[in-house]
Specification:
Elements: E1 19-20, H1 23-32, E2 35-41, E3 47-56, E4 60-66, H2 70-76, E5 80-93, E6 101-112, E7 114-115, H3 118-132, H4 145-150, E8 151-157, E9 160-166, E10 184-187, H5 209-212, H6 214-217
């Protein structure tokens, strides 16, 4: 199965016109978002959903968590999972409450994770750092051997995926069009604020230029 196409198991059944088969659109969403929600079922059958920092690395996603986590150990052992990523882009304010909705881009990835080790693990963590904090890898201390041993790094292939995009204006019923109320879309913008110094800085330090660039490059 080509990782450049959505899989039969991830075909959208509800509102299928919102499904996008654009792999470039999927990559843009994954490269924009910082948090994924990862589903895992425990041995007793209880499902859990974990919020996890992630990064796209070509045709796979990189996830990381604690080696002490039984849920991550289950994922590392090959338990099936579903990873979802959503960006909320605005609110659709219709003339009726029923037709009001959201602008969003939402991805779902099905599959099984592979645990990364050795040099591949270190490289994946560097990719994750660059995605979450662009430019920081050159300044911050890399993980120690002890820290690496405490960290579980997983990869899941972008093979079974779907992308759903909602970006239309309000779709009010004809009988509501004459209501004397405003209707439209209110964009929702996500951006970084002004950096705040850590209280334990040993001496005054300037905010790095790459940090100051985040509001422009990561909005």
């Amino acid at each position: 199965m080509s990782p450049r196409q959505p899989a039969p198991r991830t075909q959208v059944r509800r509102l299928p016109d919102k499904q996008s088969h654009d792999r470039a659109g999927l990559d843009r969403l994954l490269d924009h978002a910082l948090v994924a929600h990862v589903a895992v079922v425990a041995d007793d059958g209880q499902p859990f959903v974990l919020p996890v920092g992630f990064a796209r690395d070509g045709d796979r996603l990189i996830l990381h968590g604690s080696n002490a986590s039984r849920l991550f150990r289950g994922l590392a052992a090959g338990a099936p999972t579903c990873v979802s990523v959503t960006a909320l882009d605005g609110l659709v304010v219709a003339r009726s409450q029923f037709e009001s909705s959201m602008h969003y881009r939402s991805a779902m990835v099905l599959g099984r994770c592979t645990e990364l080790t050795g040099d591949e693990k270190s490289a994946a963590l560097a990719t994750l750092t660059e995605h979450l904090m662009p430019g920081r890898g050159a300044d911050a201390r890399p993980p120690s051997a002890k820290e690496l041993a405490a960290t579980c790094v997983l990869a899941i292939p972008l093979q079974e995926w779907s992308l759903k995009v909602s970006d239309s204006p309000p779709d009010d019923a004809d009988e509501d069009l004459d209501r004397p109320v405003w209707a439209g879309v209110v964009p929702l913008l996500h951006h970084f604020g002004h950096p705040v110094d850590a209280p334990d800085l040993r001496a005054p330090r300037p905010v790095p230029a790459y940090v100051r660039s985040w509001p422009d490059g990561r909005s």
